[in-house]
């Protein structure tokens, strides 16, 4: 192994790809390869978290800022739903997160950070009023419910 992982990760990655493709697995840096592969999975989980928290933030705004509702907001919600569904279609292993209560709590807290301080969004509940399955339903647009 000519290039160390810590020295130049880009050159290291090219070397690792070469060793793997050539079948010279004994020359591959298995420990760092495993970490990088796990990093790919973590990236997609982070991206799903971000998309779901953005959707929940849009729904919270929709619910609480009734006077500001418009077709643009409706389209933003619909587009975020489509982005999430496309991601889940390409990466079905992530679908389990949608039903996970801990994942829901994490994305709800991220959504709260996105809307804190906005008009009528200062007193949102600490737990999501909706499941992610509900939030992903194309016809779901929450009405105002006092917290």
Describe the secondary structure blueprint for this structure:
Elements: H1 9-21, H2 30-64, H3 71-90, H4 95-98, H5 101-115, H6 132-136
Helix pairs in contact: 2-3, 2-5
Question: What does the model show?
Answer:
- The chain has 147 residues and is mainly α.
- Helix content is 63%, strand content 0%.
- The protein is elongated.
- 17% of the residues are buried.
What can be said about this structure in brief?
This protein is mainly alpha-helical and 147 residues long. Helices cover 63% and strands 0% of the residues.
Bin the helical content: 55-70%
Model regions low in confidence, pLDDT < 50 over at least 5 residues: none
On the 0 to 100 scale, the average pLDDT is 93
Number of strands: 0
Beta-strand level of the residues, as a percent range?
Answer: under 5%
Tally of helical runs: 6
**Biggest sheet, in brief?**
none
Shape: elongated
* Structure class: mainly alpha
As a whole number of angstroms, the C-alpha radius of gyration is 21 Å
What is the H-and-E element order? HHHHHH
Distance between the termini: 60 Å
Keywords:
147 residues, mainly alpha, 6 helices, elongated
């Amino acid at each position: 192994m000519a290039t160390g992982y810590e020295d130049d990760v880009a050159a290291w990655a090219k070397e690792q790809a070469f060793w793997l493709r050539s079948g010279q697995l004994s020359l591959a840096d298995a420990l760092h390869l495993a970490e990088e592969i796990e990093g790919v999975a973590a990236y997609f989980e982070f991206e799903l978290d971000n998309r779901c928290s953005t959707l929940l933030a849009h729904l919270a705004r929709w619910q609480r800022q009734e006077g500001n509702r418009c077709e643009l907001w409706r389209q933003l919600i619909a587009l975020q739903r489509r982005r999430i569904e496309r991601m889940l279609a390409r990466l079905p292993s992530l679908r389990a997160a949608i039903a996970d209560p801990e994942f829901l709590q994490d994305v709800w807290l991220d959504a709260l950070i996105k809307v804190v301080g906005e008009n009528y969004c200062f007193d949102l509940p600490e737990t999501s009023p909706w499941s992610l399955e509900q939030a992903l339903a194309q016809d779901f647009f929450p009405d105002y419910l006092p917290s």
